[in-house]
Amino acid sequence: VLRDKLDKKLHAAVKLILDSQNPEGGWRYMPGSREADISVTICQIMALRAARNAGIYVPKNKVDKCVEYVKGCQDKFQGYFRYMKQGGGGGGAQSFARTAAGVCALYSAGIYKGPEIELGLEFLRRSRPMLGGFGGRPDMHYFYGHYYAVQAMWTAGGRYWAEWYPAIRDELIGRQALDGSWMDQICSHYATAMACIILQVPNNYLPILQK
Q1: Beta-carbon contacts of residue 110 (< 8 Å; ≥ 6 apart)
Q2: Sign of CA dihedral 49, 140, 82, 134
Q3: Element (H, E) at 27
Q4: CB under 8 Å to 32, separation ≥6 — which residues?
Q5: How confident is the model at residue 130 (pLDDT cuts 50, 70, 90)?
Q6: Is residue 132 very low, low, confident or very high in pLDDT (cuts 50, 70, 90)?
Q7: What is the mean pLDDT of residues 80-86?
Q8: What does 188-204 look like in DSSP terms, one character per residue?
Q9: In the predicted model, is pLDDT for residue 134 greater than 60?
Q10: What CATH number was assigned to the domain covering residues 2-209?
Q11: Per-residue pLDDT tens for 2-51?
């Protein structure tokens, strides 16, 4: 009975996400929006990927439209992702978080290779912790960015993961408070939860990241 209820609610949630996709192929904060942005779009395509992995049908044309939108948000020369397809945010500090989200969005849509992936990964790689790049700066997007960056590097594997995880692991351990928590401009609860998610990725707990 509980499984039937859950199945019904999951199908309803997937329908809402699909119905809320805007003409560009992305998502914004409310259904029916004419705009879209990369930060909301990653959440929706990741949710659709998780639903598909659980056996719920997700139309391919919806995923393809999302891929088109995400690719359209990327700077084709430097590799970072803008906040919106029309613009918003250059290659500054916030571009680290947006680019991590953009690469994860493509992975969630089933795109594992191609120039967009390579450009995005190389941009992130230049920002990895301990090098003084954007990824090592404790701004309000620090934990948000690393939440997606560690997933992107885990999926990429190889040298990307071999370089990235020890760097973020050591940096987070160095920033941990004596009571075991982490601090962020938002709150310690958020920072601690995100830090724990980041650190546990090699344990393969999350179904969407399992290899």
Answers
A1: 49, 63
A2: negative
A3: none
A4: 20
A5: low
A6: low
A7: 90
A8: HHHHHHHHHHHHHGGGT
A9: no
A10: 1.50.10.20
A11: 888 999 999 999 999 999 999 999 999 999 889 999 999 999 999 999 99
- List CB contacts of 45: < 8 A, sequence separation 6 or more: 63, 66, 70, 105, 108, 109
> How far is it, in rounded angstroms, from Cα 33 to Cα 210?
33
Burial code of 159-185, b = ≥16 C-beta within 10 A, e = fewer?
ebbeebbebbbebbeeeeeeeeebebe
Residue 184 · residue 140 · CB < 8 Å: yes
Cα separation, 66 vs 50, in Å, equals: 15
Question: Distance (Å, rounded) from C-alpha 110 to C-alpha 64?
Answer: 10
pLDDT digits (tens, 9 = 90+) for 63-81: 999 999 999 999 999 999 9
Where do we find the tokens 């090592």?
136
d(CA 35, CA 206): 31
Q: Structure tokens of 167?
A: 């760097």
